[in-house]
Amino acid sequence: MNKKTRQIALALLAVLGLSAAAVPVGAQQVTSIRGADVSASDLPAGNYKQLPDQAPIQRDYVQQPPLIPHKIEGYELTKNFNRCMDCHAWSRYKETGATKVSLTHFKDRDGGELSNISPRRYFCLQCHVPQLDAKPLVGNTFQRAEGLR
C-alpha cells in the first residue's frame, strides 16, 4: 500500500473511531409520541381492511390530496402503466364517473404546462391513500379547517 493510501485509510479509521466514541454509553433511545420505543415490533399488526367503495371522502384541510374512496389492491402502477388513469384520465373520467386528475398534475416544477401528467405526479400513491378501518395511533383533537366545515 502506498503512503497516500495508507494516510487516507488511517484518517478514515480515526474519524470512525471518534464518531463511535461520541455516542455516550446508555444514550436515551428515540421514542414515539406514544412513549414507546420506535421499532417495528411495537407497531400494530396491520390486519386492517380497506373501507368499501364509497362517495369521495371530504378533505380535512386545504390542499389535502383527495383520499382514495375505493379498493386499489392489485392495481398496476409502474413506470410503464398507471391503472388509475383507466378511470381518472381526462379522456375517461366522464364515462367512468371518476374524479378527473387535477390540472396541477400537468405542470412541471417551474409551473410550465405539460401535455401529459408530470413525472413528479405520476405515482399516485405518493400522495393519495386508500382509507382503512384503523384507529388513530395517537389521540388528538384535530379539527377540520374552518373553510371546509
List keywords for this structure.
mainly alpha; Flavocytochrome C3, Chain A, domain 2; 149 residues; 3 helices; extended
The count of β-strands is: 0
Q: CATH top level of the domain at 48-149?
A: Mainly Alpha
Give a quick account of the main beta sheet: strands, pairing sense, barrel closure.
none
In CATH, the homologous superfamily of the domain at 48-149 goes by the name: Flavocytochrome C3, Chain A
Number of helices: 3
Shape: extended
What does this structure look like?
It is a single chain. By secondary structure, the chain is mainly α. The protein has a domain at 48-149: Flavocytochrome C3, Chain A, domain 2, CATH 1.10.1130. The protein contains three helices and no strands. It has helices at 3-22, 85-88, 93-96.
Give a summary of the structure in a few sentences.
The protein has helices at residues 3-22, 85-88, 93-96. With 149 residues, it is mainly α.
In terms of topology, how is this protein built?
Blueprint: H1 3-22, H2 85-88, H3 93-96
